[in-house]
Amino acid sequence: MQKKTLLDGQKIQITIKRLCHQLIENHDDFSNTVLIGIQPRGIYLADRIHQELQSILKIDNLKKGNLDITFFRDDFRRKDGLVTANSNSIDFIIENKKVVLIDDVLWTGRTIRAALDALLAYGRPEKVELLVLIDRRFSRHLPIEPDYIGKKVDSLDSQKVVVTWASEGAEDKVILLSEKQ
Amino acid sequence: MAADRLSTRHLLGIKDINRNDIELIFETADNFKDVINRPIKKVPSLRDITIANIFFENSTRTKLSFELAEKRLSADVVNFAASSSSVSKGETLIDTVNNILSMKVDMVVMRHPYAGAGQFLSKHIKAQIVNAGDGAHEHPTQALLDAFSIRQKLGDVEGKKVVIVGDILHSRVAISNILCLQQLGAEVMVCGPTTLIPKHIEALGVKVEHNLIKALNWCDVANMLRIQLERQDIKYFPSLREYAMMYGLNKQILDNLNKEIIVMHPGPINRGVEITSDVADSKQSIILEQVENGVAVRMAVLYLLASQG
């Protein structure tokens, strides 16, 4: 395995700050906007964005939830092994709200397709936007593009992008893993 | 941490599954419980699966519960009741089921009056089978939802004391419950008149008690079973009234215990026989929670089985 660091802790912090300011440009005081992290890996980024936004805006009532997409996946019974479900925690209705979906890595777009489906169970949002830390561009299977991007990355299908977080006991880091030739 | 898949293709009985399987089912059921409490109670997971509910014996709760679970997972459902079918014209079990399967059914949920019917069928057909009760043998999903309800109410099943009261001899719920609770580390006692306790049941590792008050003072949870008059070919006790006096649970008994216990009942209740109305409707009873959990647990079972179809 070859490892290449794409973003280190400091860069991630700068990127998150920049993403937050871009969000503020479009959402003002967030009175009608909610953040939704996608389980299992998007929730760490959602937490960070949530904290950062609240400290920049000096508010403490920004709504945030976690969305699990397991039962909405399109590869059920088509791939080996079972993906274990995670919990949903959305204790508000998203009817007529602006929703910012947050995930760490955007690759084929299938997770986001499932998330859009899963989201409907909580109401009809006014608008849904997508924020990702890493965009593995030119690898989409579906017509899905992010609205806010931390970093665009060119990668092969055989490679893997791994994001780890200090809040899960590792360090803030994005690495690109590739098989040794 | 539970395993990431079941160890079996069919759910024929608790005897065939292990503790990891049970824990995986519970963890998945937690997620489905969340799903069925949302404004939109449906997920698309089983949208390309067809399930046949084949009931050779009457049922309200189990059949409705399975059907709801299937529909909330977006499966296509066909229902079949023996009373209104060609079975009464003399068709055999395999023929009936094979005919249904040639209509491209992926999964069969079956209730049958004979023990082992599910086992038999699983050797002859390709579809996956979920046993919804076979004679006096097993009723695995009922045991799972009972244990799930105890876990939800008391936090854990391990180390808890559960007494099963009533007609143990004719009860598939009792056997499956004993096996399931023991796998999860609970202590189990059975209580009832001598005639309704099977001989050698101690061999399963359960305690036997014939005095209801003693049993209730020992336990954390009392599961009151129905007297299955339809399976009793001879008289096992002098009268229902005498049974109710000796083994019926009423408010007075409940209030005089030295602790607060949880009361369960798999339904249908014979009010005034094994349990009085004021107990069935009391705060200590979790009978309706059991029904709600039944849908979530059955969704988990169907989802997990389908994932390895």
UniProtKB/TrEMBL annotation, chain A:
Its EC number is 2.4.2.9. The keyword Glycosyltransferase applies. It comes from the Bacteria. Signal peptide: none annotated. It is an enzyme of class 2 (transferase). The keyword Glycosyltransferase applies. Keywords: Glycosyltransferase, Transferase. One of its GO terms (molecular function) is uracil phosphoribosyltransferase activity. Residues 4-161 form the Phosphoribosyltransferase domain. PANTHER family: BIFUNCTIONAL PROTEIN PYRR. This is Bifunctional pyr operon transcriptional regulator/uracil phosphoribosyltransferase PyrR. It comes from Pedobacter changchengzhani. The gene is pyrR.
